[in-house]
Write a structure and sequence with these properties.
The chain is an alpha+beta fold. It folds into 4 domains: about 5-20 and about 175-320, Molybdenum Cofactor Biosythetic Enzyme, Chain A (3-Layer(aba) Sandwich); about 25-40 and about 145-175, Molybdopterin biosynthesis moea protein, domain 2 (Alpha-Beta Complex), CATH 3.90.105.10; about 50-135, Molybdopterin biosynthesis moea protein, domain 3 (Molybdopterin biosynthesis moeA protein, domain 3), CATH 2.170.190; about 335-405, Beta Barrel (Beta-clip). The chain has 7 helices and 27 strands. The protein has a 6-stranded mixed beta sheet with strand order 7-4-6-5-9-8, with no helix packed on it. It is elongated, with a radius of gyration of 31 Å. The structure holds adenosine monophosphate and magnesium ion. Magnesium ion (MG) binds near residues 185, 249, 250, 256 and 302. Adenosine monophosphate binds near residues 187, 204, 249 and 304.
């Protein structure tokens, strides 16, 4: 049986990123940049005022000249017409371009204006004025030609403003995978039904669909597959025209665990089956070539928490790789155990946990009461999973642990 690390290596070696396509800004969130993004403008693009007030020459104020003629009014979007000489000022609005000759702005609240002799005047109610006051110089934030995002960056909603500012209205990114979800099992009934004896509600289907959709992916719900060779084979082959097919159930060693056999029969090449991890050991992964694309197939174990952990640990990483990103374990973070904890068994374990905030700056994780792979109750309070290596079963409070957050 392979280790978690070997499983990651195999995913990295096997999965080819999806084709790159120019994608419009409105659709970029969640994509991995296939190119560096270079600024095509300076930011700000001109010397500008950050206040409503009067653009002046600070040297005038230094010599005691505080009653100035107002020679122009400049609003945002205007191009100044005048070059300010000594004794002159320009009324200016926030964001407007500083006229040549001026090197500071006095806030309107610190001025009095008047009309005298058919001309506009302003008196500055200030003692002194530093050069550059309330002036934002061209290019101070970033300069034309500067790299503002590097290839591999995952676009977040908060990045969209900067991308718009630098004119990145279309950007090259790898496609997002199309996903199909197919839970399997004769015992499964829809969550709207009351299970009869021996039946169980299909938790995995809606959960896997929701987790994939939360990554911004388009997901096809293939319904439920029954444990029957012909019927299940047909359902599975219907999912193989997607970039990613996620199955649950039927991958263990029981006589009704038909999924691995059917997948092989349909030409999907097995890359690994079974990983030394708890929960989720029976996980199956394989690939099928489809012209210039590839279908990745995961068979997750049926117990809901096994499916959840398999998705969070491996499927998410595979999706990231399909989108051209690095295959890491999806931004694991480190912190301290808030409570002592005992693990059982010889496998590395992912344990549901919540983040604890207290008055210290140390990140802490609290292992939750959890009864194993069928127990979803603990997941209601969980923010992620703590990783416990197989080296030791006793974990004191304060131990440094790795945590895999859900988002
Ligand atoms: P399997 O991996 O098919 O042997 O299933 C293992 C356990 O998970 C069994 O107790 C199943 O009833 C349960 N199970 C399988 N699929 C689902 C599902 N979609 N939703 C909830 N429980 C499931
Ligand atoms: Mg089953």
């Amino acid at each position: 049986m392979i280790s978690i690390e070997q499983a990651f290596q195999l995913l990295a070696q096997t999965i080819t990123p999806l084709p790159v396509e120019s994608t419009s800004l409105a659709n970029l969130v969640g994509h991995v940049l296939a190119v560096d993004v270079i600024a095509d403008v300076n930011s700000p693009p001109h010397d500008k005022s950050v206040m409503d007030g009067y653009a002046v020459r600070s040297a005038d104020v230094a010599t005691g000249l505080k009653r100035l003629e107002v020679v122009e009014t400049i609003i945002a979007g205007d191009s100044p017409a005048c070059v300010l000489g000594s004794g002159q000022s320009a009324k200016i609005m926030t964001g407007a371009q500083i006229p040549e000759g001026a090197d500071a702005v006095v806030m309107v609240e610190q001025t009095e204006s008047e009309c005298a002799g058919g001309r506009q005047w302003v008196t500055l109610n200030i003692e002194s004025l530093a050069a550059e006051k309330h002036v934002l110089r061209c290019g101070i934030n970033f300069r034309k030609g500067q790299t503002v995002f590097t290839k591999g960056h995952v676009v977040r909603p908060t990045d969209i403003g900067l991308l718009a500012e630098v004119g990145a209205h279309v950007v090259d990114v790898a496609n997002k995978p199309t996903v199909a979800v197919l839970p399997t099992g004769n015992e499964l009934v829809d969550c709207a039904s009351v299970p009869a004896r021996g039946q169980i509600r299909n938790s995995n289907g809606p959960m896997l669909i929701a987790m994939a959709r939360s990554l911004g992916l388009s997901v096809t719900d293939l319904g439920v597959g029954r444990d029957d060779l012909a019927a299940l084979g047909e359902k599975i082959s219907g999912g193989l025209d997607h970039d990613l097919l996620i199955l649950s159930g039927g991958v263990s060693a029981g006589t009704m665990d038909l999924v691995p056999g059917i997948l092989k029969e349909l030409g999907v090449r097995e890359v690994f089956h079974k990983v030394f991890v708890k929960p989720g050991k029976p996980i199956w992964f394989g690939v099928l070539g489809r012209g210039d694309r590839q279908t990745c197939v995961f068979g997750l174990p049926g117990n809901p928490v096994s499916s959840l952990v398999g998705f969070q640990l491996f499927v998410r990483a595979a999706i990231r790789r399909q989108m051209g990103g690095r295959l890491d374990d999806c931004q694991a973070v480190f912190g301290e155990l808030s409570l002592p904890h005992e693990t059982r068994g010889d496998r590395p374990t992912y344990w549901p946990a919540s983040c604890v905030s207290d008055s210290t700056s140390v990140r802490k994780f609290k292992p939750l009461v959890w009864r194993g792979s069928s127990d979803l109750l603990a997941l209601g309070d969980a923010d992620g999973l703590i990783y416990f290596s197989a080296d030791s079963s006793h974990h004191p409070a304060g131990e440094l642990v790795k945590f895999l957050p859900f988002d």
